[in-house]
Amino acid sequence: MSTSKLTSRAFSTPRHTTHYVESGPADGPLMVFLHGWPELSLIWRAQMEAFAAEGWHCVAPDMRGYGKSSSPAATSAYTLENIVADMAELHDHLGGAPAIWVGHDWGSVVAGELVAHEPQRSRGVVLVSVPYFPTTNALPTLVPLVNRAIYPVDQYPDGQWDYYRYYNTHFACAVADLDADKAASLASIYRRGDPASIAKVVSNAEVTRKGGRFGEAHRAPPTQPDLALWPQTDFAALVGSFEAHGFRAPCAWYLNDDANIDYAQRALNGGRLSLPVLFVNGDYDPMNTIKGNQLGDPMRAACADLTVTSLSGGHWLPVECKTALVEAISTWLHSRTFR
């Protein structure tokens, strides 16, 4: 795999500044990588290096509220409509040629919304870990899809999405707990998938009853980072970013369900996607796996050209399954002759 350097750049408009890293030939076909929570553009290093070596022009922004990009104060600034507008402006800056968009976690949600609203910007989309929902990733969409065999409604009304509800009911507390020891919070979040976790209640389902993600301690336990996931220098950059700006802006993405649902309702063709879609499932991701439950059903119904593949990993596939994710995307690209 190539070790081509990631070049740091910034692009500003009157409404927003996006910092991004890029690699590969500037005249190569464009591939844009969108990270999620609580990530950074650097989470895509392995994939960018691999595809740059194959001649792709690879770009990964720090999303709104992250890294060196703008972090507005208002929680309403973190609607999907605003974030898609950021990506559309960045895409125009990069020349506007139809791109392959690759998203993970909330980045998957952004990629899905972007191609639903502005399909001319894309030749195909790769959604990693979080499937596409034409009614968007929001509690009213997610909760009806909860597997009640694992999460009985009387005990777990919001299922694995209890933590999402907690952001909406106790936002300041949720942020304060994550901010109490930012390095330990990040180290505790980035863990490898455990096959034994599947079909069991996850800790995210018990945040409200515990009084926060970390319970009575209200701070992450001392935790060493798993350097098999993030390279040490990249994890240090991730921690430095959160030390500088905190968790408030990234967590604000969870606070805009009503606006995001309204935005999704304005998508073309009812949010149905006709362009090629690859979904990469994490088999050991107890939050988001689409195996053995209904979570993937809306995506299957909404995507006319859907390919689903699975990796033996948890939620953090870009860093847990670096090479396997490259191979999954490459196989799909070659099957569609995108080059």
Task: Characterize the structure shown.
With 339 residues, the chain is an alpha/beta fold. It has 14 helices and eight strands. The chain has helices at 45-53, 80-93, 106-117, 139-142, 162-169, 171-179, 182-189, 207-210, 232-245, 248-252, 257-265, 297-302, 317-320, 322-336; strands at 7-13, 16-23, 30-34, 57-61, 99-104, 122-128, 273-282, 303-311. A hairpin with a 2-residue loop joins strand 1 and strand 2. Helix 1 (45-53) packs across helix 14 (322-336). The protein is globular, with a radius of gyration of 19 Å.
Annotate the secondary structure layout.
Blueprint: E1 7-13, E2 16-23, E3 30-34, H1 45-53, E4 57-61, H2 80-93, E5 99-104, H3 106-117, E6 122-128, H4 139-142, H5 162-169, H6 171-179, H7 182-189, H8 207-210, H9 232-245, H10 248-252, H11 257-265, E7 273-282, H12 297-302, E8 303-311, H13 317-320, H14 322-336
Helix pairs in contact: 1-14, 2-3, 5-6
In brief, what are we looking at here?
With 339 residues, the chain is an alpha/beta fold. Helices cover 36% and strands 17% of the residues.
